[in-house]
Amino acid sequence: MDGQHDPGGRTPRWWRHGPAWWDRRGGDEERHPRWPWRSTVLITAFVLFGSNFAAHAQAGERAALDPFARVLLFVTGAALLWRQRYPVPVVFGTAVTTLVYLGAGYPYGPVFVAVAVACFSAVVAGHRKAAWAAMGTLWAGHALVAHWLYRWLPPSGDSAASWGQELVIATWVVAVAALSELARARREQWARERAERAQAARRRADEERLRIARELHDVLAHSISVINVQAGVGLALLDTDPEQARTALTTIKDQSKEALGEVRQVLDTLRSPGDAPRAPAPGLGRLPELVEQAASAGLTVEVAGKAPRLSPGTDLAAFRIVQEALTNVVRHSGSRRAHVRLDRDGSTLLLRVDDDGPATGAEAGGSGNGLAGMRERAAALGGTIDAGPRPDGGFRVLAALPIDVKHTTRAKEEDR
Predict the structure, then answer these.
(1) Which of 103, 106, 237, 270 has the highest local Cβ count within 10 Å?
(2) Are 282 and 310 in contact (CB under 8 A)?
C-alpha cells in the first residue's frame, strides 16, 4: 500500500491523480483505443447467465427465453466491444436492443448492465447529450410498452405496469447517467492535473537547463578570456622574455585547472541531481581570487566596500555577476582598470562594476549572453540588473540583489 496515499493519509493517490490505466491512454491509443475484449466477454457472459436465472424467477410472469431472446442478449453485450471507438452508436444500439428485448416480453434481468456500461463509456468519452438521449429513449420506450403497447405485445394477458415501477426505472436511469457524469468530471480533473504536472516538470527542466547554461557560460567565458590573454602574452614574450612567458603559461595551467574543476562540479549535478555538491559554490569570499585572476589578464581591479552576510543564492549570483562583468571588461573594453563597489541598502545588496572604457568590440553594448545571464540570475532572486554606457565614458553594471532570498524562494515554490 506504500505510495497509494498522500502524506496526511486522507485521500487515496488514485483518487487524486487517476488510476494507472488511464495514464497509459494517450497518443496513438487515444486515436485507436484498445479493444476491451476481456470486459466485454465478462459482461456478455454475465448478461446471458444472469438472464437465465431471471427467467426461472419470473416464470409465468414473463415470456420464456427463446433463441431470439438469447441473440438479443448476445448482441447487446457484444456491442460493448466497440464502445470506446464508437460510443454513440453503441449506446443507442444497446438501448434499442434492450427495448426490443423488453417489448418482446422477456424477463427483466442484467440486460440493463450492458446499457449502463455503454452509457458510462459515452459520457466519459464526452458524448453527454447522446448518452442522456439514449437513456431517455429507453425509459420513454419502456413506459410506452408497459402502459399502452402491452395489449398487443407478449406475454398474453399481461397488465399495465405500475407507475411505481416506472419511477424505479427512471431513478435507475438517472443514477447511471449521474455516475457517468461524475466519472467524466473526475477523468477531466485527472487529465488537467497530469497536464499541470507535466508542464511543471518541463518548467523545472527548463529552469535547470538555463541555470546550468549560465554556470557554464560564466565559468568558461571568464577562464577562456584569461587563458586567451595569457596565451597572447606568452607568445609575444616567448623569445624575448622566457621567464615572463613561463609565468603566463603557469597562469594558463592554473586557470584551466580551475575551470575544469568548476565545469566538473556543474556536470556532477547533472549525473546526480539529488546529491550535495562536492565543493562549496563560489561566493564573494573568493573576490580576492577573482581580482588576482583579472590582474593576470592585465586588468587592475579596485574593490571598495564589504559584502554583508548573504544567503547562498545571493552570494553565488553576486560572484558570477562580478566575474562576468570583469570578463566583459577584459574582452570588450579598452580600459585596463575596473572598479567594484559593494554597498548595503536595507535588505538589498548593491553591486556596481565600472570601467573607464572606451569599448573596443561590437558586443560592448550589452546584447550578448553574458548580460542576459546576469539579468536571469538577478530576476531568479527577485533582483534587478541595470547595465549600459556611462555618460562620461566607460561601462557600468549595477545589480540590486536581495540579501536574504529564503522568503522569495518559498513564495516561488508555493506559486508552483
Answers:
(1) 106
(2) no
Spatial CA neighbour of 304 closest among 338, 332, 328, 347: 338
Other CB atoms within a 10 A radius of the CB of residue 330 amount to 22
Backbone angles phi, psi at 393, to 5 degrees: 100, 165
Average per-residue pLDDT in the chain?
77
> Do 51 and 41 contact (CB within 8 A), yes or no?
no
pLDDT at 12 over 60: no
- Residue entry with cell 431470439: 68
Residue 181 cell numbers, joined: 457524469
Half-sphere exposure of 397 (CA within 13 A, CB side): 29
**Position of cell 522568503?**
407
Whether 173 has a pLDDT exceeding 60, the answer reads: yes
Residue 354 sits at φ, ψ, to 5 deg, of: -120, 150
| Contact predicate 401/383, CB 8 Å | yes
Strand 300-304, strand 348-355: pairing: unpaired
Which grid coordinates belong to 221? 567565458
DSSP conformation class of 148 = T
- Answer yes or no: are the C-beta atoms of 354 and 396 closer than 8 Å: yes
Report the alpha-carbon distance of residue 206 to residue 376 in Å, rounded: 13
Number of H helices, E strands in the chain: 14, 5
Question: What is the β-pairing status of strands 348-355 and 395-402?
Answer: antiparallel
Sign of CA dihedral 391, 396, 402, 405: positive
Contact 403, 342 (CB under 8 A): no
Q: How far apart are CA 122 and CA 50, in angstroms?
A: 24
Write the single-letter amino acid at 5: H
In this predicted structure, which of 171-180, 215-224, 272-281 has the lowest mean pLDDT? 272-281
Q: Answer yes or no: is pLDDT of 80 > 80.
A: yes
Q: What is the pTM of this model?
A: 0.46
Digit-coded pLDDT (tens) for 327-343: 888 777 778 889 999 99
- Binned at pLDDT 50, 70 and 90, residue 97 comes out as very high
Judge contact between 374 and 321, C-beta under 8 A.
yes
Which one, of 362, 364, 366, 338, lies nearest residue 352 by Cα?
Answer: 338
Give the rounded percent of residues in the chain with a pLDDT score beyond 90: 18
| Cα–Cα nearest to 18, from 205, 176, 195, 179 | 195
Separation between Cα atoms, residue 134 and residue 282, nearest integer Å: 69
What does the CA dihedral 270, 275, 276, 277 come to, rounded to 10 degrees?
-30
